[in-house]
Amino acid sequence: MVGRKPSPLIPKRKKKPAPKPQTAPRAEATPDTDEELVNRPAPVQRKKQPSKPRIKRGVKPSAPQEQLSTEDKRVLRRRRQRRRLIIRIAILAAVVTLGVVVWLNWNVLAPDKVWIWIQDLISGGTGSYPVDLSGTGARRLEQAEGYTVVLTESHLTYLNGSGAEVSRYGCSYADALMRVEGKYVLVAEQSGVRLHLSNRNKVLKEWETKHAIRAVSLNAQGQCAVLTDGPQGYQVQLCVYDEEGTLLYTRNINRNAMDVALSPDGSTVSITTVEATNGTLNTHLEVFSTTASGDALCDYVAEDILLYRIGYLSGGMVAAVHEQGVVLMDPANGKTTAYTPDRMRVLGYAISGNSVALAMRPYGDTAGGEVAVVSASGEESCCVVFSGEFRHLSGCDGQYALLTDGHAYLFSADGLDGRAAVPADGQQVVNAAGKAVVMGRNQLQMFTVK
Predict the structure, then answer these.
(1) What is the pLDDT, as a whole number, of residue 109?
(2) Beta strands 369-375; 213-218: pairing state
(3) Domains of the chain and any CATH numbers
(4) Which of 89, 295, 313, 371 has the highest CB neighbour count under 10 A?
């Protein structure tokens, strides 16, 4: 009915969606005639491009890998082997070169040297030249592997190249003997029983002998020979110790002894003893093996000559200094060579490297003189003339330093390196890397030689 409202009780009818219009199927185009079907072009098909073969290194790209012949594979294998061999040879050469460099520079590259260098770099030390010595009671001055070593009444002090203190150890001996070899410094209490062995880094050992000390010697391995009074029934006793203070060798001797020297390798030890026979004073120079307890390997007797100082040269010869020159003996066969200039007397001496330096002056003169450097063969290598009053002569690693009342001279077996004017109160001198370090009464000063 028109205008009638729908009843709420009657559900609404859902409207059906309008149907989609159907499209007519596309008519396939068919050729109208057989001629069009024959002349119709065929569909174009793309050809798949063949992938390029991977070429291995060492083979020319003109030959694909799949087509390598047996000979080409052999060539490739040989090239690889040759390349590997070249690399191995290069690595081996680098390792050998590094080993040779380390071996030649072991004195600088050794672990303990590197550690000391690091310590010096970090600490730096305090002070510089001139170094005040007033009130210290300075006694001895030595050079040990780039460090200047000063022994005072109470301390052993190490100074670097600029004069800064880098180490100080307590060492108070009333009458001290001091020996330096390589990096080691030995201080002994003469007529006492105490010994003090150290290097720049630490005190290695302090120990005591059973009898009073007469003389000591040291080598670059830290081994030391000590000559003391003998036990009951003997004049002297000879003992050899290692770096730790362990006793390696001992011998009792009936004759009175003067000095002792230990060889660089520690295999032999030499002593000088004196005896009076029919009114003649004879000095015996004896060499003993530290690995055997038998008789002396060789014995040299100097009649009416007192051999008061002996030492080993770096080549193994034994040098015995006396008032008029030096005697050189080969421990292997006992042969000796003497250097005794006419009408000259010895003022001072230094044994260093493979030579001996003798400061001499003609009898009757009161000033001036000359220093002769004597080689292991007994020949004079060079002669340095000096003026003024002689004060001191020292040596280290074949380099020598001479001090007079007005000048310091630096020289070696090759000749004079230069001299410098110094104060008149100088007492001792050392050669510190081409400069003269002079110890006076109150100061330690460094001078450049020209």
Answers:
(1) 57
(2) unpaired
(3) 341-450 (2.40.128.630)
(4) 371
pLDDT of residue 1: 44
Q: Are the beta carbons of 448 and 136 closer than 8 angstroms?
A: no
Residue in this structure with the two tokens 């010595």, named with its chain if needed = 133
Percent helix, percent strand, percent coil in the chain, to nearest 5: 15, 45, 45
Summarize pLDDT for 257-268 with one digit per residue, the tens.
Answer: 999 999 999 999
pLDDT of residue 40: 59
> Running DSSP on this structure, what letter comes out for residue 190?
B
Distance of CA 252 to the CA centre of its chain: 37
pLDDT of residue 55: 47
Predicted model pTM: 0.73
**Intervals of the chain under pLDDT 50:** 1-2, 27, 55-56, 58-59, 61-63
Q: How far apart are CA 215 and CA 272, in angstroms?
A: 11
**Cβ(184)–Cβ(222) below 8 Å:** yes
Give me the residues paired with residue 445 across strands.
438
102 phi/psi in degrees, rounded to 5:
-65, -40
Q: Are 280 and 304 in contact (CB under 8 A)?
A: yes
Q: What does the alpha-carbon distance between residue 387 and residue 332 come to, in Å, rounded to a whole number? A: 40
With tokens 């001090």, the residue in question is 403
The total number of residues written for the chain in this structure = 450
